[in-house]
Structures are given as structure tokens and as C-alpha cells.
Amino acid sequence: VPVGSWIGPIVVPLTRALRAVNARVGNYGVAIVLLTIGIGIALAPLRHYAILSSAKMAKVGPQIRAVQERYKRLSLTDPKRQQMQQEIAEVYEKNGIDMVRQTAAGCLPTLLTMPFLFAFYRMLDISVDLKGAPFFWIPDLSLKDPLFITPVLSGLSMIAMQKLMPAPAIDPAQQRMMMLMPVIFSGMFAWAPAGLNLYWFISNLVAMAQQALAMYFAPHLFPKSKPTTP
Length: 230
Known about the structure:
The protein is mainly α and 230 residues long. 69% of the residues lie in helices and 0% in strands.
């Protein structure tokens, strides 16, 4: 069975792990939930680094927004916007923030999660075991959710994650685009296999739990601030 050239090394062990968990619990839906939690625990150290990096970026958010506020009336093609970017770079440098490293750290959880997302999609497509596997209201995890509950839950969990995470210092236009992402993802995933949506939803819950624990045990890293109205 072709599993894919680059994703195959993940699909094969993932399928074996899912079968092993299912042999214990007797339901592939529960097996997906448990395996997703296991993946989240394995990625926890890297996600923790990303959380701390995001908190560091958010800490200078008020300073960045103050700079953006002074230049907000300028058009995107105005040469003075280069001066704004220079002032923002000076704020980061003053606070000892390496933009390249911090941006990479912020993208790290998504970059690590996406290969598993593609692997789950491929596994649900080729695995005979998952054909007709039920889970609560879902009659077949390899097909779309008939009630579209899991894609909606996935979108809502993405919105909750955005609310929970420290507000990044970005332009209002970028903020609006980020708020649209859950809607776009929910629309894209609406007809995807229910097992894939289940994985994405549980993965978001695990990420939210880790974020909440970090905020609880290190509240000084997450100062509360009023969001700037776009």
C-alpha cells in the first residue's frame, strides 16, 4: 500500500501504534484520542520553549503597538513605514529579542504538528481497520462527520487557543487574518475524515492544557494587558 514518500516514515509507525492502542481499548476513536495525547506529551518540551518565546514577544507588545499607533495612518506604500520597521527592530534589540529565533519558535508547534496531521489523513485513507470504525455519533471515522460536530469543535478550539495565548505584537490587519483562520480551517476540514478532525481537536486541547499550566505555574511571564482595538 503506497503510504507516501516523505510522510511514509510517520504513517507506518503511527498506524502500528494506533492498532496497538486499539487492541487495548477496543475503539479506534478512543485510540485516536489517546494517541494524540501521547503525541502532545512527546512534543511538550518543544512546545514549552515556544510558549516561553511567545510570552517574551508579548511582553514587548505594548511598546510595539505604541510604535504602530504613530504610523497607523500611513499607507502600505509610504516610505516612512521603513522608519516604523526600524523603530520596531530597535525595540526588539533593546529587549534582547532575536526576531528570527523567536518567530521560528512561535511557528515550531505548528510545524511539528502538521506532519502528524498529514500522516493521520493518509492513515485514515489507506487503513482498512478504520473503515467503518464508529465513535459515538460518528458511524465511520474514515469518512466525514455526518453532523459536522468535530470540524466545528476544531474551529472553536483554535479560537480558544488564540484567546488563551499572549497577544502578539502584530498589525491589526494581521490580527483580523488570524481570527479568520479558524473559520477557514473549519471550512476546509468540514468534509475531511472525522478521525482527522478528532485528532486536530484533541491536539488543540492538549496544547491549551499546556498553555494553561504554563500560565498557572509562571504567571509573571504572562502579564495581563488590555488588547488594542484594531
